[in-house]
Design brief:
This protein has eight helices and 20 strands. With about 325 residues, it is of the alpha/beta class. Bound molecules: NADP nicotinamide-adenine-dinucleotide phosphate (NAP).
C-alpha cells in the first residue's frame, strides 16, 4: 500500500456508524475500569444501545476480542474503518488500573507551531481532530494543561463533541499567576485541581476559585512531575491526557514521563509562532528520537500516534500498517 493511501470504505452499509463505534469504545473503557467482565465472554459486537454485546467467538458480527493478557484487541476480520477506530482508541481503554498512562497531544502547523506568536490557536486543526480531543478527554481520568494555555485560551476542557463524562481538569501553575476568574476554576462543570509549588500552599490556602490547590515540590526543571503523577494516581487519576501547550507536553517528554505522544499536523503554514515540542538541542541526528508512529487521517489533518514505551504491544491480532494513513470517522 503506498504511504499516502487513505483507507476509505464509507458507504458500506454493514459498517457501524461512528456513534456506534464510539459507544463500543466507551463501554470497553468503562468495563476495564470497573473490572466487571466475566472471563468466559471474549468476543463482542458493537451495539448502538448498549455499546458492546457478547457474541459467539465465530460470529461475523464480532468486532472486538477481550484477551486475558493483552486486553481489548481488534479482530482480524474487522473492516478497515472500524479497525482504524479501535486501533487508535483501544490502547487508551487498555490502561491498567495499577499503573498510570500519560498521553500528550499537540495540534501543529506544517512548520511546527501550535499557536501564532501572539498565542492565537483557535483552531490550528480541523473539526475531526477537535472531536478526537474530546474523545480522548472522555476516555481519560484527567486532562492536564499548562498555565499559559489557560491564560491564552480560557478553555473549558470538557467533553462536548462526543458522548462521555468530563474528566478531572488539572492546571499546572507553579507560581499561582493565573486569576481565579478563569472558567476552569469557576464554571463547576468538572472537578479542577490547580497544581502549584508546594511552598505557596501556606499563603494561598486550599482553594482557588472552585479548584482545589495541590502543592508539589519543585525540582531542577520546574514542578517534580513524577511526584505529581504519584499524587494523581493516589487520587485514582491514572490516565492523564496532556493537552498542551508545547512547554507542558515537552516537560513530560523530556523527563521520560510520556507513554504516548500524539501530534496532529494541519495543512497550515504560520511562518513563526509558539513551538510545539522543544527539547534541549542535540548535536547529532543519531541522538534524536526517531519514532514508529501509527498514522491516522482526520479530515485534512494527519495524526501521528506514537507509542513511546512498547511499539507493537497494543496491536495484537490486527496489526495496522504504520505506512498507511487510516481515516478516523
Ligand atoms: N495547538 C495546540 O495543540 C495547543 C494546545 C494547547 C495550547 N495551545 C496554545 O499554546 C500556547 C500555550 O503553550 P505554551 O507552550 O506557551 O505554554 P503551556 O504549556 O500552556 O504553559 C506553560 C506554563 O505552564 C507551567 N508549567 C508547565 N509545565 C511545567 C512544569 N513541568 N513545571 C513547572 N511549570 C510548568 C509554567 O508556568 P509558569 O510560566 O507560570 O512557570 C509554564 O510556563 C497558547 O497560545 C495556546 O493557545 C495550543
Amino acid at each position: 500500500m503506498p504511504a499516502s493511501e487513505t483507507v476509505t470504505t464509507r458507504g458500506n452499509a454493514a459498517e457501524p456508524t461512528p456513534e456506534t463505534l464510539w459507544a463500543a469504545v466507551l463501554t470497553a473503557a468503562r468495563w476495564t475500569r470497573a473490572d466487571e467482565l466475566e472471563p468466559e465472554l471474549r468476543t463482542f459486537a458493537a451495539d448502538p444501545a448498549d455499546g458492546l454485546r457478547a457474541v459467539a467467538d465465530t460470529s461475523p458480527e464480532g468486532l472486538l476480542r477481550r484477551d486475558p493478557s493483552l486486553g481489548w484487541i481488534t479482530r482480524a476480520s474487522t473492516a478497515p474503518v472500524a479497525r482504524a477506530f479501535f486501533d487508535l482508541y483501544l490502547p487508551i481503554c487498555n490502561a491498567a488500573a495499577r499503573s498510570t498512562l500519560t498521553i500528550g497531544h499537540l495540534g501543529q502547523s506544517l512548520d511546527g507551531y501550535i499557536a501564532t506568536t501572539s498565542g492565537d490557536s483557535d483552531y490550528v486543526t480541523g473539526p475531526d481532530n477537535l472531536r478526537h480531543l474530546h474523545r480522548m478527554r472522555a476516555l481519560c481520568d484527567a486532562v492536564l494543561v499548562g498555565a499559559e494555555t489557560v491564560a491564552m485560551d480560557d478553555p473549558q476542557l470538557t467533553v462536548r463533541r462526543c458522548a462521555g463524562d468530563n474528566p478531572v481538569r488539572i492546571v499546572l501553575d507553579p507560581q499561582l499567576r493565573l486569576r481565579a476568574a478563569h472558567g476552569v476554576f469557576t464554571d463547576g462543570a468538572a472537578t479542577t485541581l490547580l497544581v502549584c509549588d508546594e511552598t505557596h500552599l501556606e499563603r494561598a490556602g486550599q482553594q482557588f476559585g472552585d479548584a482545589e490547590l495541590v502543592g508539589i515540590a519543585m525540582g531542577q526543571d520546574g514542578l517534580d512531575l513524577r511526584s505529581l503523577l504519584t499524587a494523581l494516581h493516589a487520587r485514582k487519576l491514572r490516565s492523564i491526557f496532556i493537552e498542551g501547550g508545547g512547554k507542558t507536553v515537552s516537560a513530560f517528554l523530556e523527563q521520560d514521563l510520556l507513554d504516548r505522544l500524539q501530534i496532529a499536523i494541519a495543512p497550515l503554514v504560520m511562518g513563526a509562532g509558539r513551538a510545539g515540542i522543544h527539547l534541549p538541542a542535540r548535536e547529532h541526528l543519531a541522538d534524536c528520537m526517531r519514532l514508529s508512529p501509527r498514522v491516522f487521517s482526520m479530515g485534512d489533518d494527519i495524526l501521528f500516534d506514537c507509542d513511546l514505551r512498547n511499539a507493537g504491544a497494543t496491536m495484537a491480532m490486527a496489526q495496522p500498517s504504520t505506512s498507511a494513513s487510516h481515516r478516523i470517522v
